[in-house]
Every structure is written in C-alpha cells, then in structure tokens.
C-alpha cells in the first residue's frame, strides 16, 4: 500500500473508530461531514476486505478507458466518409448502420469528427438556410410530379483536351427515384429522347413534368410531352428553387460521384453513371427520408 492510500485508509479508520467510541453514527457523520450511506459503505468494505477495502477505487470511466469511445477501424470509416463525401454526423450514422451494422448516435459521430479536427465542413459544403418565405412541398403519389433538368459537365481526356457533356436528370418528387442519361448535345432532340427513356424506366405512370425555360424544353419538346398524355409546365423565370429537388440532386452528383470520377471515355462514363444511378435509387440513405432509400419509399407507396 503506497503512502497516499495509507493516508486515506487511516482517515476512514479514524471515522469508523470514532463512531464505535461514541456509539452514534449520525453524530459521527455530522462531525466528519460525510453521509450515513458513505459511512456504511466503508463499514461493509472494512468488514469484508479489511484495510484494503478502504482504499479509494479508480473511477470506472477513467480518461482514455471509456468503453464506448469510438476508435480503431470504425473511427477510420467515419473519417473516410467525412473527408471523401463531406457527410454530416447523421448521414454517417445511417451509412454505418446500413452497411456495417454499427449503431451510433449523431453526438458520438460528432465527437469523433471534433477529436480529429473535422467538425467543420469546407465553406463550399456548408448548408445554407432556406428563407422562411419559401414553403417546401412534396407530392405523395409517385409520378404526380417529375422534375427534369440538365447538368453541364466538363472533362479532360487522355490528351488533355476538354470534353463537354450534358447530364439529363429526372427525379420523382414523391420518392426521389431518379433517371440519368448522358448526351453529347444539348437540344430538344436530346430532351425528347431523354423523356422517352424516363417513361420507359420509371415503374409508374407520369402525370406531369416540370422544367425550366431552357431552349431544350421549348415547343418541340413541349408538344411531344403533351401528345403522349403528360402535362408539361415551366417554372417561373429566375426561380430554380421550384425545381429544387433535381437541382439538389446535381449537387449530390458532384460531391459523391463526379469528384471521385476519373474520365477515360464516354463508354466508361456511361457504365459508371449507370452504377451511380442504381446506387442512388437502391442503396443510398436519403436525408429527406431519415436514412431510407428512394426505392424503399417507392415500394411502400406502391404497396
């Protein structure tokens, strides 16, 4: 027993001896400033273990020994998801649970990020609040409202030459199911070809398509859509928020697909885009659905 432990034991023995001497536990506790519960804990410990029972025990959660602290391989997974995709704590929770069977709270994930200096995202990735005057909407029936938009893409080929491509994207407002296709041109013929592709791909009837006022969505496209029994409406000029879901999905494409893509050729791009489309629809946890995938939402709504 070291000097410090001996000093603590001697003090406790003094208190126990004093209580025996005066025959009154309450007065002893008041005199030494301890609770009756503490007194009886010491008394039982001394009766069972002698002097060793009166030594102070180390706290069960000493610094560096916390049993539920996230560390090791799991911490590496969290850091990878944060650095690679800039995921927030809640989305990281969803990924760990869905793909690794690991359940953590957002607070636990945030502690790991803070410990590694990753609690703040780059300024370009930080969320901006939605002005209160804007009202979010969401259709309940699949196919009731499809948003279509075009994303401009620039790549460098093996010769260092700039390659320009156009990603046409359609997203269902109710389920966030998406269809994506790459075109070399940006015109009404491509838009018509894409909308035919969307109709063949989506497993539900489409009632309305909403686009911006781009030249690719003008009269030829408009009447093609109307002629096949689908209503086509334009958003008001200068209001991209009215097609906000497809616009937001393009930001997801940038952060989770294109920033990791090494462009080789169009065939390679199309194959990888198909994989990304399937992953987005079938496996990617969606924030609007609290970690569920678009396909899971679609399955429930069509059940």
The total number of structural domains is 3
**Strand portion, in percent?**
5-15%
Query: Class of the largest domain in CATH?
Result: Alpha Beta
Strand order of the largest sheet: 3-2-1-4-5
Spatial extent as radius of gyration: 32 Å
Biggest beta sheet summary = 5 strands, mixed
What's the CATH architecture name of the largest domain? 2-Layer Sandwich
Number of strands: 5
Average pLDDT, rounded to a whole number, is 85
The backbone outline, from C-alpha atoms, is elongated
CATH homologous superfamily identity of the largest domain: Ribonuclease H-like superfamily/Ribonuclease H
Q: How are the elements arranged and paired?
A:
Blueprint: H1 3-22, H2 25-32, H3 36-49, H4 72-85, H5 89-100, H6 106-115, E1 146-156, E2 162-172, E3 178-183, H7 188-201, E4 208-211, H8 219-227, E5 231-234, H9 244-256, H10 266-282, H11 294-302
Parallel strand pairs: 1-4, 4-5
Antiparallel strand pairs: 1-2, 2-3
Helix pairs in contact: 1-2, 5-6, 7-8
Word description of this protein:
There is one protein chain. The model has no long low-confidence stretch (mean pLDDT 85). Helices cover 46% and strands 12% of the residues. The termini are far apart. The chain has three domains: 3-54; 72-119; 146-302, Nucleotidyltransferase, domain 5. A hairpin with a 5-residue loop joins strand 1 (146-156) and strand 2 (162-172). A five-stranded mixed beta sheet has the order 3-2-1-4-5, with helices on both faces. By secondary structure, it is an alpha/beta fold.
């Amino acid at each position: 027993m070291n000097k410090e432990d001996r000093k603590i034991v001697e003090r406790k023995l003094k208190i126990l001896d004093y209580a025996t001497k005066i025959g009154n536990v309450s007065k002893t506790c008041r005199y030494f400033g301890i609770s009756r519960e503490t007194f009886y804990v010491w008394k039982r410990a001394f009766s069972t273990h002698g002097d060793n029972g009166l030594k102070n025990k180390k706290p069960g959660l000493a610094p560096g020994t916390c049993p539920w602290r996230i560390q090791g391989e799991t911490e590496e997974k969290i850091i990878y998801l944060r650095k690679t995709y800039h995921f927030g704590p809640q989305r990281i929770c969803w990924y760990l649970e869905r793909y690794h069977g690991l359940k953590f709270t957002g607070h636990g994930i945030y502690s790991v990020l803070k410990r590694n200096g990753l609690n703040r995202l780059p300024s370009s990735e930080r969320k901006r609040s939605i002005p209160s005057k804007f009202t979010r909407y969401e259709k309940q029936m699949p196919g009731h409202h499809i948003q279509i938009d075009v994303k401009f893409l620039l790549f460098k080929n093996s010769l260092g030459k700039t390659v320009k491509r156009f990603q046409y994207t359609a997203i269902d407002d109710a389920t966030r199911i998406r269809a994506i296709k790459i075109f070399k041109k940006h015109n009404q013929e491509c838009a018509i070809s894409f909308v035919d592709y969307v109709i063949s791909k989506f497993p539900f009837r489409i009632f309305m398509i909403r686009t911006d006022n781009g030249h690719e969505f003008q009269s030829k496209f408009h009447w093609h859509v109307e002629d096949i029994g689908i209503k086509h409406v334009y958003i008001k000029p200068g209001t991209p928020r009215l097609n906000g879901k497809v616009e937001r999905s393009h930001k997801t494409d940038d952060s989770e697909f294109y920033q990791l893509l090494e462009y080789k050729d169009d065939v390679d791009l199309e194959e990888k885009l198909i994989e990304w489309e399937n992953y987005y629809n079938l496996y990617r946890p969606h924030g609007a659905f609290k970690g569920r995938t678009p396909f899971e939402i679609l399955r429930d709504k069509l059940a």
